[in-house]
Amino acid sequence: MRKVGIHNFPDIDRVVYGKPAAEALNDEAVRLNANRVFLLVSRTLNTKTDEIETIRRALGNKHVATFDGIAQHTTRKQAAEVARQAKEAQADLVVAVGGGSAVDLAKIVIMAMEHDIFDEAGFDPFVMGPGVPFSPFRAPTVRQIAVPSTLNGGEYNAGALVTDERTKLKQIFFHPQMSPVAVILDPDLSLHTPTNLWMGSGTRAMDHGIEALCSPAGTPLADEVVLAGIRLLREGMLRTLQQPNDMEARRQSQQGSWLAAFGLQARVPMGASHGIGHVLGGTFDVPHYYCTPVIMPSLLRYNKAFTEDAQKRLAAALGSPEMEAGDAFAGFVKALGLPTRLADVGVGEDKFEKISKIAINHRFVQANPRPFKSESDIIDLLRMAA
């Protein structure tokens, strides 16, 4: 049967690798004619290492301010406050240095700056409703650069997840130019990342690849690239687990994350692992890097009849072609020392009904390759993962 589709390319100028982050960032600021750089950075990197100070020194008088109090789950309230600070600093470039929370915050901050959003309610007109592909933002005047210290891979797409603390719901905001204008990969930064965060964020990067591979809207180019990314991630993460100072393994892991996120770059819709993960994080405060390990093995089993060919290719990429993909992924997660069940992250059956009521309306849950016909179907999946 002939497959019909469209492959999209992202609004990212470049990925820079092989240079120290400070040197690469200053080069990018010069390229972009940026003279007032606002840094959004990991507090650990800022207060317990010299990495951020090295970046500030490289930028010189182009650096205007640093913010390091980033919440684990990006909130409207914090985005509005940081946007106010960046606007007052007359920033012409925002740079995120750290994990996925820093990158998401930078994405939504540049949009809050564009629209003078300085309180939680200011985001209300821009929430993506059912069937709406983009948030109705103007293109941002100020762009951002991402310098990731984890493997999440969210820096390669234009969506931001932002929690509305008034409702405890995590919402998606999207505009093509919310993507970083550049991504800078420096494995030296990752030496300061806790092992559980490095490994957990790597499974999140794999999640991007797996859901793109299994999506009915996937493309031939995305399929091949994400499979290569999953292979690189598996090898690099296991090597890093054994030898934390193996910089080649860390570089390989970063490049695996880049490739595994290719489906995100092509705007291939994610599935229920992402959708349910957003509920677990936004409403129940589960760390985002633990959501994939506890949901994905059961979701692969749930989706198997609808994604058999993709799952065979996935099992091979995970180094276990003789196994079912769900079992192969579960074994990989266990080898990394990550939680493997919902109970391990404090989510019991008493929460399943609320999760299902929220998740059933999530656009990624609705894009899952095996449809969920009702909330009870979601509860069945959650029981599999309990």
Automatic annotation (TrEMBL):
Residues 14-187 form the Alcohol dehydrogenase iron-type/glycerol dehydrogenase GldA domain. It comes from the Bacteria. Keywords: Oxidoreductase. InterPro entries: ADH_Fe/GldA, ADH_Fe_C, Alcohol_dehydrogenase_Fe. Transmembrane segments: none annotated. Pfam families: ADH_Fe_C (PF25137), Fe-ADH (PF00465). GO terms for molecular function: alcohol dehydrogenase (NAD+) activity; metal ion binding. Residues 201-385 form the Fe-containing alcohol dehydrogenase-like C-terminal domain. PANTHER family: ALCOHOL DEHYDROGENASE, ALCOHOL DEHYDROGENASE 4. Belongs to the iron-containing alcohol dehydrogenase family. This is Maleylacetate reductase. It comes from Bradyrhizobium frederickii.
